[in-house]
Design a protein that fits this description.
The chain is α/β, with parallel strands linked by helices. The chain folds into two domains: 114 residues, Rossmann fold (3-Layer(aba) Sandwich), CATH 3.40.50.1000; 105 residues, Rossmann fold. Helix content is 35%, strand content 20%. A hairpin with a 6-residue loop joins β10 and β11. α3 packs parallel to α4, α3 crosses α7 and α5 crosses α6. The longest helix is centred in the N-terminal third of the chain and has 12 residues. The two termini are 24 Å apart.
C-alpha cells in the first residue's frame, strides 16, 4: 500500500471532542488556536441541527474556543445543501429549530404544511405529538422523508435525551417509510464539508468520539480517522465494531502537535 499523504486539513466533531456538557475539554483551546495559526483548512462538524453556525460560533467563543462561522458545518447545513442540489426552490414541512429552519430559508425553501415536497425532521428539545402526527400524514400523502441525522440519543446535563434517530423510527413505524439521513455517518456530509473548505479526503483527517458516526463517516469518505476517548465510546466498545479508526488517542490534547 502507498504511504498516506501528510494531513493538510482537519475535520473534528464538537460534542465529546472539543466540549463536553458545555465545558471545553482540556487541550481543545490549544488545538483550535494551533489550527488557526497554521492556516490549514478545518471544519468543526456537528450532527446537532438546533443551532445556526453563528449561534455555535458565539457559544464556543464564550467557552474560549474561537471558531469562525465559516469553519462550522452542521447537519442542518448539510441537509439544506442536499435539498438544494436535489430540488432547488422546493417546499418542506419542518420539525426542528432555528438551525434547520434558517438553513432551509437561506436556500430559498418555503416552509409549509400544505402538500410539501419533503418532511424534514431535525433536533428539537420540544418534540410535539401534533407535529409528529402531521409529519406522518404528510409522508403517507406522498411527501419525501428526510432527517438531519440518525443519532438516537443526545447528551444533556441530566442524562441522555431522545434525539432525531429515535423520533425518525417512530415516524417510520407509522408510515413504513425510511428517512434519508443527511448527517453523519453519511459520507455526503463529509464530502460537502471538504468541498466547502477546498480540501481533499486523501490529505484530511476526521476526529470524533463516536465509532458509529464520526469514525464511520470519515472512513467511508476516505479520510484518516482519530477516535478520542473523551466522549461516548470506551476502549472496550471499539472492539465490537467491524472497522477501526486509524488511531485511538486519549483526547484532543494528544493531537495538538500533529497540526
Amino acid at each position: 500500500m502507498s504511504e498516506r499523504k501528510p494531513i493538510d486539513s482537519w475535520l473534528t466533531d464538537m460534542d465529546g471532542v472539543l466540549i463536553h456538557e458545555g465545558v471545553p475539554i482540556p487541550g481543545a483551546d490549544a488545538f483550535v488556536k494551533k489550527l488557526r495559526e497554521s492556516g490549514k483548512p478545518f471544519l468543526v462538524l456537528t450532527n446537532n441541527s438546533i443551532y445556526t453556525a453563528r449561534d455555535l460560533h458565539a457559544r464556543l467563543k464564550r467557552m474560549g474556543l474561537d471558531v469562525p462561522v465559516e469553519n462550522i458545518w452542521t447537519s442542518a447545513l448539510a441537509t439544506a445543501k442536499f435539498l438544494d442540489d436535489q430540488r432547488p426552490g422546493g417546499t418542506a414541512y419542518v420539525i426542528g429549530e432555528a438551525g434547520l429552519t434558517t438553513a432551509l430559508h437561506d436556500i430559498g425553501y418555503v416552509l409549509t404544511d400544505h402538500e410539501p415536497d419533503y418532511v424534514v425532521l431535525g433536533e428539537t428539545r420540544t418534540y410535539s405529538f401534533e407535529a409528529m402526527t402531521q409529519a406522518v400524514r404528510l409522508i403517507r400523502g406522498g411527501a419525501r422523508f428526510i432527517a438531519t441525522n440518525p443519532d438516537e440519543t443526545g447528551p444533556s446535563t441530566e442524562g441522555p435525551l431522545p434525539a432525531t434517530g429515535a423520533v425518525a423510527a417512530l415516524i417510520t413505524k407509522a408510515t413504513g417509510k425510511q428517512p434519508y439521513f443527511a448527517g453523519k455517518p453519511n459520507p455526503l456530509m463529509m464530502r460537502t464539508g471538504l468541498n466547502a473548505i477546498g480540501a481533499h479526503s486523501e490529505s484530511s483527517a476526521m476526529i470524533g468520539d463516536r465509532m458509529d458516526t464520526d469514525v464511520l463517516a470519515g472512513l467511508e469518505a476516505g479520510m484518516r480517522t482519530f477516535l478520542v476517548l473523551t466522549g461516548l465510546t470506551t476502549p472496550e466498545e471499539i472492539e465490537r465494531y467491524p472497522y477501526r479508526p486509524s488511531e485511538v488517542v486519549d483526547s484532543i490534547a494528544d493531537l495538538v502537535d500533529r497540526v
